[in-house]
Amino acid sequence: MEDLLRFKFDQKYVIFDTETEGLNLVTSKPWQLAWIEATGKKITKKQNRFLKWDDLNVSEDAAKVTGFDKKEYESKAEDPAVVFKEFMGLISQDDVIVVGQNILGYDLYMLGVIARNLNIIMDYSFINNCFDTKAIATALAKGNKTPDKDDFIGWQIKWLHYRERGLKTNQKFLLQHYEIDFNEAKLHDALYDIEKNFEIFQKQLWELDI
Amino acid sequence: MSCMIPLFKTHASIGRSILRIEDVKRIADENEFDEVYLVEDTMVGFPEAFRTFGEKLRFGYRFSIYNDDESDESESKMIVFADGDEGCRELYDLYTRSFDEKLKTPWHDYNNLKFAVPFYDSFLHKNFVGFSNCNPNLPNELIFFVERNNLPFDAILEERIADYVINSSHFCTDLNMQVVKSIYYENKEDVEAFQTYKCICNRQPGRQASLSNPRLDHFGSDRFCVEAWKEHK
């Protein structure tokens, strides 16, 4: 019982999200990478970083959905290589759990896009430490609360691909489901999203036998 | 596992490659290939491929294989290669049968075909990414293809295949792994042309696909190309 993750108050977490110029998993460059570091339930650090790409082309739809502000971007954007190195150094630590909403279906690919644009071969070896709140939400909604502990990543990947009409697992739904207060206007702001996502994750841990 | 074998697909497999036979011919000549591997989803391109490559051609047909219960859910992919003239005749026969019946153990009926399991869409891949229970019968001699396209799940899938091969060695006499690269376009920069072609060929209902949102799940690599093969051969 004490081994359950919800009782590990010294467990380190990195919760992250990307905002991107489009939804193309090969070519859409992320212009924002936000993450928070936490120990147990306590958030210890917040990072909201903007990645400078000379040829950034945020589509109209993406700008609307992600709240892209060109002025803010231009004033805050920095060398993607510096941000990426810092972030990868953090999530590649063996004792860190990496958390995010749909990271296995989207954000990992976006890290791949950053790597490709920096001419770096992406190292996905941290993938076994990933917790995807969307995959977990799907499993929980279908009554599966006991993941295969020896193959947690495989369990998540299966649930990530599970499709059922009417099954809701988006962040807004999950916030409502867990009765977490939120400001709808701020959803899709990367930093706000991950703070709320971490609250969702904490709730999920109480339902999940892991 | 020996060196990485390039497995070309041409636009004869509609919607799956932007390469033409003449493109593959030029690439094969430039790189002085002793053998040219084509893996197609149809035999339509075979006559032209044979005229172009002659004895150098190693033609593979990707077909569906099923569990004993023949359920649609158990469908996964396997590749069959022809060996010699008799193999080509047998391959055409298998090709015809694959439209008329759900194949379960086709290797029992032929002597000049070699079977392989593709990296993606195989029974192991389908069981890995979903709740499928693909459990087809397997021939005694079989090659499992492994690909390294720098996709997030490639390394995990490769591990699963290696485990399967090791754990199955007691009842299959000759299981092997071979690193290959599926090739659908020539250079990394052609990936957008390939995506455009896939968007055009896409028959999914719903919102129109575009380059900013091509609606291609897990299509997150530009490495299905000759340029990437050259980096790792």
Helix content of chain A: 25-40%
The most extensive contact between chains is: A-B, 30 and 26 residues
How far the N terminus sits from the C terminus of chain B, by CA atoms, comes to: 12 Å
Q: In CATH, what is the homologous superfamily of chain A?
A: Ribonuclease H-like superfamily/Ribonuclease H
Overall, the morphology of chain B is globular
Oligomer: heterodimer
Contiguous low-pLDDT stretches of chain B (5 residues minimum) are none
Overall pLDDT score of chain A: 94
How many domains is the backbone of chain A divided into?
1
Strand order of the largest sheet of chain B: 1-2-3-4-5-6-7
Average pLDDT over all residues of chain B: 93
Which strands sit side by side, in order, in the main sheet of chain A? 4-3-2-1-5-6
Overall outline of chain A: globular
Please give the count of helices of chain A: 8
Structural class of chain A: alpha/beta
Number of strands of chain B: 7
Describe this structure in words.
The complex is a heterodimer of chains A (210) and B (233). Chain A has eight helices and six strands, in the order βββααβαβαβαααα. Chain A has helices at residues 60-66, 70-76, 80-91, 103-117, 133-141, 152-160, 171-177, 190-205; strands at residues 12-20, 30-39, 42-51, 77-78, 96-100, 130-132. Chain B has 233 residues and is α/β, with parallel strands linked by helices. Chain B has seven helices and seven strands. Chain B has a seven-stranded mixed barrel. The mean pLDDT of chain B is 93. The chains are: A alpha/beta (210), B alpha/beta (233). Chain A binds chain B through residues 21-28, 59, 61-62, 104-105, 108-109, 112-113, 116, 121-122, 124-125, 127-128, 153-154, 157-158, 161-162, and chain B through 128-131, 150-156, 191-192, 195, 211-222.
Keywords:
heterodimer, A: 210 residues, alpha/beta, Nucleotidyltransferase, domain 5, six-stranded mixed beta sheet, 8 helices, globular, B: 233 residues, TIM Barrel, seven-stranded mixed β-barrel, 7 strands, 20% strand
